[in-house]
Design brief:
15 strands
Length: about 250
């Protein structure tokens, strides 16, 4: 995942003359300098998913395919996941609702509560943080699948599963970690809601190596928080079932 550190806005002019619309002044949002949303005023932010990159020839949602994200709350972070539910309906829907290109380049974007509030200051239609749907375990697992090297967790729309033979195993400890990762992935995937929190100081990352097209690739998806296995959706952060109280950590 991509933990966004800062957002800025800029004014831009879109040329709608090819659709008899003239020119339209819009507000664009940049996340860490990357164009996150190209016309805030033209995107419907009130639904379960939003087309953050609309057609630049007319500004109408669904005219151009792709550019869709789904805002979800994950504790004190919010994550703009791909629109997995819509994408899973079929091949045409997978093309129509695919995420913006920056997801492949930067990762799935995540905002802190404070940064989301900064976004809301320039986008009145954004739901309040506390009104966002929760990030469910299935969607978190699908996020990990999307970002995993060498398709080690399979490919969407299949549910994430460790692919046999893709994790390089050279010792019994590697086999134990592979088994532990698989069990933790299944456990998180069954959760109705998950939180993403900063890892505790006693958290140890457990790297594995994946047989990827360009050679062995280090994969940091598993950590041990004391004796408790955790998934690592991004550097320094662990995924925790929402049903697990903060006091238990």
């Amino acid at each position: 995942m991509w933990l966004v550190r800062g957002v800025t806005v800029q004014r831009a002019t879109l040329d709608f003359s090819s659709s008899s619309g003239g020119h339209r002044e819009v507000t664009q949002l940049l996340a860490d300098g990357v164009l996150f949303a190209n016309a805030i005023e033209l995107t419907d932010w009130t639904g379960a998913r939003a087309q953050v990159l609309v057609c630049e020839s007319c500004g109408i949602e669904h005219c151009a395919p792709g550019g869709w994200l789904a805002p979800r709350a994950a504790g004190d972070l919010m994550v703009f996941t791909p629109a997995f539910e819509d994408m899973g309906s079929g091949d045409s829907e997978r093309a129509e609702y695919r995420p913006p290109p920056y997801v492949a380049n930067k990762g799935i974007p995540a905002f802190s509560r404070a940064l989301y509030a900064s976004f809301a200051e320039v986008c009145n239609e954004l739901p309040s943080f506390d009104a966002l749907p929760p990030l469910c375990g299935r969607d978190l697992a699908l996020c990990l699948q999307l970002e995993a090297p060498g398709a080690v967790l399979g490919r969407f729309p299949a549910l994430p599963e460790l692919e046999d033979g893709k994790v390089l195993v050279t010792a019994d400890e590697d086999r134990r970690l592979v088994r532990l990762l698989s069990e933790t992935l299944h456990a998180i995937g069954a959760c109705d809601a998950v939180r993403i929190e900063c890892a505790r100081p006693n958290t140890a990352t457990m790297p594995l190596y994946v047989d990827a097209p360009r050679g062995a690739h280090e994969w940091r998806a598993l950590a041990m928080e004391g004796r408790i296995p955790r998934l690592l959706p991004m550097h320094g952060h662990v995924a925790i079932p929402a049903s697990e109280g903060a006091e238990s950590r």
